[in-house]
Amino acid sequence: ANRLRLILGDQLNASHSWFRQTCPETLYVIAELKQETNYTRHHGQKVCAFFAAMDAFAKALQQAGHRVCYLTLDDTASFTDLPELFHSLIEQYQVTQFEYQLPDEYRLREQLANDMNFNTGVTTQAYETEHFYLSDSELNEYFKAGKKHRLEHFYRKMRKRVNLLMDGDNPEGGQWNYDAENRKKLTPADFEHVPEALVFSHDVSEIIARLKRHDIHTIGNMSQTLLWPVTRQEAQDLLVYFCRVCLVRFGQFQDAMTGQLDTLLSQRQWSLYHSRLSFAINSKMLSPQHVVDTAIASYRQAEGAISIAQIEGFVRQILGWREFVRGVYWANMPEYQQLNHLDATQALPNWFWDANTKMNCQHHAIKQSLDYAYAHHIQRLMVTGNFCLIAGIHPDEVDQWYLGIYIDAIEWVEMPNTRGMSQFADGGIVGSKAYAASGNYIKKMSDYCTDCHYKVNQIDTEDACPLNSMYWHFMDKHQHRFNANPRTRMVYANWLKKPEADRARILKHAHGLLANLDNI
Ligand code: FAD
Ligand code: SF4
User: 419 lies in which domain range?
Assistant: First the structure.
C-alpha cells in the first residue's frame, strides 16, 4: 500500500466518500489504542461498545472489498501513542500518503496536526467527516469565541436552512418550539404504556479479557454481554424501534423521571421514551440527517397520530442542540476546558462512583449510569448536574465523571453540556442561566421523593432534602452575579423576604452539608 488511511473509533461512517471506491493501494487502519482507553476513566461498557463497533466496521469494510488492518490492544500496546504507531506502520507498508478524517476532539486534532512529523517523503491530508449538518469549514460563520450564543436563534436558522418542519418561511404547526408541552410527569397510570428498551446482546468476553491483560481500568458494571448496538444494521433497528414505539410520547415525557424500576416498572423499561441513539450517532454509525429524516417520515406516515410537539422535540435535540454544542466547542477550545466562572472548588463526593447516597434522586441517576452507561438528559442536567452545580464541585472533576461514565461521552459534546449548560462554568456561552434547582423540581418531575430518606418539603431540619438549603446557599453566594438576570430576579425577591434569622439558619445548615458531602 502507498496510501494509509486512519479511521478513529468515532468515525464509523460507512457513507463517507472514502468508501465509494475500492483501491488496492489504500490500506485502512483501525486501532484499539491505550491512549484512548486511558485519557479518562471510562465506563467498561463504553470501551467494549467502541471496540466491538470498530471491529464490526472493519469487517464490513473488508466485505465491501477494502483493504483493512484492524489492530487490537495486543498489537498496539508496545507503542506509546498514535504517532509512534503510525511511524512504524508507514515504514512497514512503505506509505507515501497518510490521510485522516478531522477528529471531533481538540486533543486528537492537535495530535494529528502537530505530532506526526513524518519524513519529507510522506504527504498528509485531512478530510471532513461528512457527518454533521454543518461542515467544519462553516462553523466560524455561526459561532464566535466567547460570544453568548443562544440555541433558539441557531435552531431557527438551521430549520430554515435545511427546510425541516417548515411551512414556507414559518414553522410547521405555527410554533418553533413546543417545550412547554414537553414537561409531563409519569404517573402510575402511564407506566403500563412505557415500552421496553430494545437491547442487543453481544459477547464481549474477548474484549474484556484484553482490557484485563493490558491493565485498563474502567468504571461501572461490565457484563460479558453488551446491550448497545455495534453495527449500522442494529443502529438502524434501534432507530426504527424508536420511531415505531417511542416517538409518539417522546416529547411529552422527555423530562420525566421515575424511581419505580424495581417495583412498578420492569428493569427493561429504564430508558422510558428516549431513543438511546446517542452512541450510534456519535460513533457515526448513523448520520444525524438520516435519524432526523427517518423520524420525520414516521411522523408524516402516522397522519396525526403523532403530534408535532413530539417530533419537534426530537428534531430540536439533533438539528439544534447537537450541532449547537459542537459549534460552541470549536469556537472556544482550548480555553473552554479551563473555564470556571463560578469559582467552584469542591471535590466530587465518593458516592458518584458507587451510588451510595441517601438522596434517592442521586442514587437512582448514578446507579442507572453505573449499570447501563446511560442516563437521559434531565437526569444528567437536573439530578447529578444540578447537585454538582449547587454544591460547587470543581468543573474539572464534573467533566471527568461525565466524560467517563456515559456510552455517548466524547469531549466535543460532553464538555459544552457539562461545563457549560449544567455547571455554568462558561458564564453563559451555552445557556442563558444556571440550571440551579431545589428539591421541588425533582418532586415535580419524578417520584423519587416519595421513597427518599430526606423530606423534600423541609429546608433546614436534620432530614430536610439537602438540595433545598444548598440551593439557597448557591443563590445567596452568587447573588452579585445573578440578580441582574430577569429570570432569577423573582428568586431573590423570595429569598430576601425571609426573615434574616431564617436565612442564617438555612445557610448554616447548608454549610454543614457542604463540609460533609461524602456522607449525605
Ligand atoms: P434522546 O433523548 O433520545 O435524544 C435524541 C438525540 O438528541 C440524542 O441521541 C443526541 O444525539 C441528541 N441530543 C439530545 N440532547 C442533546 C444535547 N444536549 N447535546 C447534544 N446532543 C443532544 N450527549 C452526548 O451525546 N454525549 C455526552 O457526552 C453528553 N453529555 C452530557 C452531559 C450533561 C451534563 C448533559 C446535561 C447532557 C449531556 N448530553 C450528552 C446530552 C444528552 O443528555 C444525551 O445526548 C442524551 O441523553 C442521549 O440519550 P438518547 O440518545 O436517549 O437521547
Ligand atoms: Fe432528591 Fe431531595 Fe427528593 Fe430526596 S427529597 S429524592 S434528595 S429531591
Answer: 350-519
In a domain, 344, yes or no: no
87 alpha carbon to ligand 2 midpoint, in Å? 54
45 in a structural domain: yes
Rounded Cα–Cα distance for residues 361 and 365 (Å): 6
454 lines ligand 2 (CB under 6 A): yes
DSSP state letter for 316:
I
Q: Which residue has the cell 457539562?
A: 418
Q: What is the ipTM of this complex?
A: 0.99
Evaluate: CB of 360 within 6 angstroms of ligand 2.
Answer: yes
Residue 409: nearest ligand to its CA? 1
Domain count, the chain: 3
Give the Cα separation of 423 and 409 in Å (integer): 17
Cβ 298 under 6 angstroms from ligand 2: no
Q: Which atom of ligand 1 is nearest to the CA of 288?
A: 11
Contact 13, 131 (CB under 8 A): yes
What is the mean pLDDT, run by run of 10 residues, along the chain of 520 residues?
94 98 96 97 98 98 98 97 94 95 97 87 96 97 96 97 96 90 84 89 97 97 94 98 93 87 76 94 98 97 92 96 98 98 98 98 96 95 98 98 98 98 97 93 93 97 97 96 85 94 98 98
